[in-house]
Specification:
single chain; 231 residues; mainly alpha; 0% strand
């Protein structure tokens, strides 16, 4: 499996030699109307970025959301299996999480460009609404496996994926808007993405450790099986 992933990653990097350094049109309204200085990662850039309160307000929730998404998408089988869900059920749940998100992002992108680019206030309110929606889906997923019906995990995963994938480009664009004077988009986006990946890895390790502590030797045992045997 590792060999397949390495081959796919290698082939996907080949077009980088023919892709131009800059897009034909500005990526955001700010870049289209302002002269943006290219920034490199340095101590001064990081110091200026960390002194920007807007960066922290956006970077912390973005990192947490990416961490939670990576953790739950990686641990779906471990979450669902104790409640008598099969590996196929967990796989379909993960597929819905990703595929519905991709479709939602593709459909919403032209609409968001039309309505949010002229008005930053519309984009800000939309981000707030999506953050609330995604937070509710994470909270609802706590009780979804207990229903022992595939409908609840499927529906919640679909909504979670759609909200997350639509939210990511909006949050990144707003992050660039409020930090472009202190650091370029490549710096701030790299920092928050790296934070999300590190946070996701830590969350996965903690979830595995908690599963071992709570489950003991029977960590893979189905929930309720001990009670059934006692009866």
């Amino acid at each position: 499996m590792t060999l397949y992933v390495a081959l796919v990653c290698t082939f996907t990097t080949l077009p980088s030699y023919i892709i131009p350094a800059r897009p034909p049109s500005p990526p955001t309204a700010t870049f289209g109307t302002s002269s943006v200085t290219s920034h490199t990662l340095s101590i001064k850039t990081l110091r200026d970025l960390l002194r920007n309160p807007s960066f922290h307000i956006l970077a912390v929730p973005f990192t947490l959301l990416v961490s939670c998404f990576n953790a739950i998408s990686s641990e779906l089988n471990s979450i669902l299996y104790p409640y008598k869900f099969s590996e196929d059920d967990a796989g379909i749940t993960g597929a819905l999480l990703i595929l519905v998100g991709l479709v939602a992002a593709a459909v919403s992108s032209p609409l968001l460009d039309h309505f949010t680019v002229p008005s930053s206030r519309v984009r800000l309110w939309l981000i707030k609404a999506l953050v609330l929606l995604v937070a509710i889906t994470y909270l609802a997923f706590i009780w979804a496996p207990q229903t022992r019906s595939v409908g609840a995990p499927y529906a919640i995963a679909a909504v979670m994926g759609a909200g997350s994938f639509v939210l990511v480009p909006l949050a990144l664009e707003l992050l660039v808007e409020v930090t472009w004077e202190d650091a370029g988009p490549e710096v701030c986006s790299a920092i928050v993405w790296a934070g999300g990946q590190v946070g996701g890895a830590i969350s996965i390790i903690v979830m595995d450790a908690l599963r071992g502590v709570w489950g003991g030797a029977g960590a893979g045992q189905e929930v309720g099986s001990g009670a059934d045997e006692g009866q």
